[in-house]
Amino acid sequence: MSNNHTPTPSLSNVHSSINTENKIGWRRILAFIGPAYLVSVGYMDPGNWATDIAGGSAFGYRLIWVLFASNLIALLLQSLSARLGIVRGLDLAQASKNAYPRFVNFCLYILAQIAIIACDLAEIIGMAIGLQLLFNLPLIWGVSLTITDTVLMLFLMNKGMRKLEIFIMSMIFIMGMSFMIEMFIVRPDVLEIAKGFIPNNLFKSDLVSQNMLYIAIGIIGATVMPHNLYLHSSLVQTRQITRTDEGLKSAIKFNLFDTVIALNLAFVVNAAILILAASAFFKNGYFHIAEIQDAYKLLAHIFGNLAPTLFAIALIASGQSSTITGTLAGQIVMEGHINLRIEPWLRRLLTRLLAIVPAIFTIIYFGEQGLGSLIILSQVVLSMQLGFAVIPLIHFTSNRKRMGEFAISLKVKIVAWLSAALIVALNAKLVADQIGDWIKQYPHTAIWIYALVIPITAAIALLLLYVFFRPILFKHRDQPARVPHGLATVIHELKPITYKHIGITIDFSKNDRDCIRHAIMQGNKDTRYTLIHVVETAGARYYGTEVMDHETQSDSDNLDKYVLAMKNLGYNADAHIGFGRAAPSIAKIVNDDKIDFIVMGSHGHKVFKDLIYGTTVDSVRHKVNVPVLVVKPQPIHHVLTKKK
Hints:
The chain has 644 residues and is mainly α. It is 68% helix and 5% strand. The chain has two domains: 22-473, Amino acid/polyamine transporter I; 501-643, HUPs (Rossmann fold, 3-Layer(aba) Sandwich), CATH 3.40.50. The strands form two sheets. Strands 5-4-3-6-7 form a five-stranded parallel β-sheet. The longest helix is centred in the middle third of the chain and has 38 residues, at 245-282.
């Protein structure tokens, strides 16, 4: 049930950060509540809005059953995702990395990244539309402004997982209240809603059914989101649990409660949007409302100002909450599949830029009216990627050797595979129909479709077959390997290390005393101590060692005072001044002087200052091959306490 090697924890900065032990009754249940709510916002993002509005306006209540079926599939798959994370302590990307070859993992990462960009695209457009509706801001400016939410995401991540979950829940509350009030305004037909739960035939050859199929697949793609499967398997690991059979059973049970409650709330919101579109538009003869802006205007025309204002507020809340979960999912798939670990804000910025480009391109070349179609297309792209997340998930949770008694039962396995087959079949039909339509509509481009589109489609189909058959043909071949920071080695014997040359970074602050004191503790009177200071003035950056400005001279004099004080205490000390950027200069001095240990003071920056000034310690750590001791500045009240 466990592996011989322990990989780097998923979302390591918040892994096991929330205590669930020593709690009873409602307190214990509440300790587990949260992960599924972060997942559920992906089921209520602006992409869902577009597909729900398109479905409700075109077909009335007839697609409610698709929403309901999608929600049931989502409940099943998200519960499997949570089970994988709880039992094996791996997220879906890490498990895939262990089960599939490196090249396949790279392909799976690219597909997952495309899905996240498609999701982000819907969030960008939704946020921009919401800003336009409320403040009359041009869409191109709204799209450009969405890049600033990176700062909000970074702020919330620094505040801890509980604060992040509370923020997401507040956004869900705003959406829920908005639509509850709107339901009273539009007064839907309850009997017609009930009839909407009866399935309709999506596979007829007529044009109406083809359009219904396209929107139905968009709804499935918007509801069962592939990146949410990665996300949920990681988020459940933020809870501390006792890793006994009883502890795992308890965690699975409480996370199932969390999943059922959160996803049913998401279904209610999605159903409310579709019912709103059916009641307001389909009933009044507006059958082709795929644009969120049109929905807003028609709501104002039919029901006055309150309904559209609530609609726009809920839309902004939806886009803002979804963007945070997309960032977390991106971090998980990047670290899990290809071992690439970068700062979350940078990852977020890259994803957002990749999503902003097609949105701006669409506005420039097709006008603002093209954004609605772009949202629906993004949801179809999401749906097409589902198979590459769902199939491995079912394989991993069915594996009795790895999951032990927590492997899913035969009944659950059958339902899961039927769900996967339904998703893949719907997508295969959609792709075949779409390629056929392109050839008919654009006969002059048929050669490019045959030369590029069909071969790429065939390659993706072969990859899906490989993903399906590999765990069957090579059962239990999954090996934990290639984690971002390598695997732990076996420790046989520990001998004390004597450092001969210790470097101490000096910044002429209250940190210096602690840094020197900790450095002396690592060495002895025979050790050589080099005090390092980097001059970062503009002159130092351009002229290096040739600069002799006032700051350089002052720093040199102060450094000599430290050296003299250490020599008076009997220590072998000298000084070395660097010029330019701090991290490269410190690394160069360490390498050139053959220093074998570094003591650095932490600057204590948080959130915004790290963005502005950078993190010198982390940069140095990755540029040198010697141990680095980071000394955090002590709060004043601690120092006073010690003096007492």
